[in-house]
Amino acid sequence: MNSQCYAVAMDLGVCQLRNFSISFLSSALGKESASVRVDNSSSGASVVAIDNKIEQAMDLVKSHLMYAVREEVEVLKEQIKELIERNTQLEQENNLLKTLASPEQMAQFQAQVQTGGSPTGAAQPPVPAGPSMQNSGTSA
Question: Could you tell me the residue ranges of all domains in the chain?
Fold first, then answer.
């Protein structure tokens, strides 16, 4: 164990954090911080230098996290935009289907919804699509 680390848990934790910060800086910032060494004399200048390096490392981590969060926010905004567009499309389709459905079909649908049945169940006869159904009903 390094001579500046003490048996007290708090001092030991601080010492380990400083040693980790120095090794982190060495790997993250490259050769610039590789020359940082812990001074066994524990002078005030070395503590300040280490604290500065810790602050630089924390700023680096913060900037990386902020960048990642900004990217995630952009992805989520795009997903929200796509979902809003899809919702609008489905609402328009739903309104169109409601206007094209006959009152009997709407009543049957409402009855199935209230009983919890499937609106596409086997009891429902198939509905022909298009205006041919309307024309055949008026010619009889």
Answer: 2-28+48-101
